Amino acid sequence: MFSGENILMTDYRGVAAGDVAAIHQLYALQSHLIDSGRQRDWAATFTTDGEFHSPSYPEPVVGSSDLEAFAGRFYSGAEAADEVHRHVITNLLVETAVEAELTVRGYLQIVATKRGGDTRLVRMTTITDRVIRVGDEWKIARRIVSRDDAPRNP
User: 6, 66, 140, 153 - which has most CB atoms within 10 Å?
Assistant: First the structure.
């Protein structure tokens, strides 16, 4: 029975609480970086050979320089449209894959606000990431984005 004392969760589904907190911080940082035009810093949250796969874009994006250019195009597109774009990540589920590797799933909304105007939902997606420990940091090795509006496969 709950006694009113603080309870410290040591792990969840085999993942240390500190690692779960670090993953939440990583995903928050990513959103802030790409939305504020800090493309080099955003790309650095991936491994140097990191991959980004999304049906919203014609080709997968692979490697630090291509990830940086991709993030730059995202920010420039918002600026050109006189909009502020926000990545809103929720419902992160962090699970152990193998030692020093996690699988992270979450919901990702892209929201756009016209400067001086209305806000709209651009797209609703899910992300499934392979995240690995590099030194003392977690980095994304592979991101797969799935759009909610994609047709069902028969």
Answer: 140
